[in-house]
Amino acid sequence: MRFPTTREREYLKDLLVVLTQKEVKLRYKSSWLGYLWSVANPLAFAALYFVAFSVYMRVDIPRYPLFLIAGLFPWQWIANSTGAAPNLFLTNTSLIKKIRFPRNVLVGAAVLNDGIHFLCSIPVLVGFLLAYGSRPSWSWLIGIPVLALGQSLLVYGLALTIASLNLFFRDLERLTTLVVTFLFFLTPIVYSESMIPEKYRALLYLNPVAPLILSWRELFLSGGLDWSVISLGYLYAAGVFVVGSLIYMKLSWKFAEVV
Amino acid sequence: MTAVRFEHVSKSYPIYSQILTGLKASLLNVPQTIQRFKRHRFMALDDVSFEVGQGESVGVIGSNGSGKSTTLALTAGVLRAQSGRVEVRGRVCPLLELGAGFHPELTGRENILLNGILLGLTRREILARMDEIIAFSELESFLDQPLRTYSSGMYARLGFSVAVHLEPEVFLIDEVLAVGDLRFQAKCREKLEEFKKRRVTIVLVSHSLAEVRGFCERVIWLKDGKVAADGEPGSVIARYEAAMA
Ligand SMILES: Nc1ncnc2c1ncn2[C@@H]1O[C@H](COP(=O)(O)OP(=O)(O)O)[C@@H](O)[C@H]1O
Ligand SMILES: [Mg+2]
Asked: Of A51, A132, B34, B166, which is most buried, counting CB atoms within 10 Å of its CB?
């Protein structure tokens, strides 16, 4: 290992910023429509879960619509990035075949783009909060950056793993969809963790995405920050980040021959 | 001083159908999968050795599939060899495809920044060269239009203009000069002559033997992944032409 020079660091930062700007620009090219569409998606699901679980199945959670979107918005970031990950390198074939540059930055830019989009959807959440007579808390000023950083690491690690492996096993995309759907229902988003029977509750902490999603929801609903849960979230994020980076380092030199 | 050195370089590719079998089939029979990946590979370069001196202009010729693009990709560091050594000294500008990384929905100006960054410049370095790049491309009036409105010639102009302003020390060109109108082609050639005078190392892959003969000081003929001849342009090209006839 060798430390990067000042110019190399400046270069990596510029590369990440320019690629992220590109993604964001393309997403909002049709100005407001792009924004509306991607907020409409989690909102539509929130409405669906509300009807299914609250109206029909009588799940008894106070302020259920607010409860739902407080978990669905951060979840959407994970879902968007991992959903796009299988094709991240495949849609950049000419780049990977013809230019030498750190390809993991493509993944970083895609994850940041989804993260920025998540941050831009927070005002909608604030609207719901106000409608239910609550208010954002000052603790958001610390909580949002801390959780966003942890989640960036986590989602980057997941996406890098999926994007790299998918070049070598092209049916990974279907497996990803399946695993992400499993994770969704195993994470307390449409239900609360107190509804899980006591004897299974420990299993929750084997789910690498659960601690961060729970922390987001707690922060949005009550302004609370449970640092032990956040630490666990960071532990998982760091683990996934390291695994993803190792897989990438092991495989990246072969990318140009298989895309 | 050598700028590029290949020492007994071999490069093979996995055979494509192997990749597409997917995860399920691979997991069902792991040892067999590993074996297949190891055994069934296609030799694109087979024990290739050559050197390019600093400031030299070398042409690479050969029929389709003889390994020319593979040689440039190894030099550019996009691919890695299975065996042997590839050494490159100096900043490489790979022009393996004009405008690799251009996005059709972004404007010409945005694409200059994007392409320049991908080719290894920092944002400051590109912005400092922006005016020169634009002037060279002669596309001022289209620069704020999205790239999808460009003709393929205009697209190539923009790509070439970014590439030549990177101040490369080793310039790799893979069959990209036969684009644009005649006037722009002449301008590209002029720029290459200027590079040659400044002793920039140039490796040029081209199907135009006349161009190679006119421009290069030395020619390497690749045949089925091996060096068939390496030397003075006139004689190598004559032997190549005789073999093709
Ligand atoms: N990514 C790849 N996967 C498998 N085979 C490849 C790949 N790239 C090139 N080849 C094969 O390697 C050989 C040499 O290719 P290339 O270097 O592109 O030749 P040239 O540029 O001289 O036409 C060809 O037979 C080609 O089919
Ligand atoms: Mg070729």
From this structure: B166
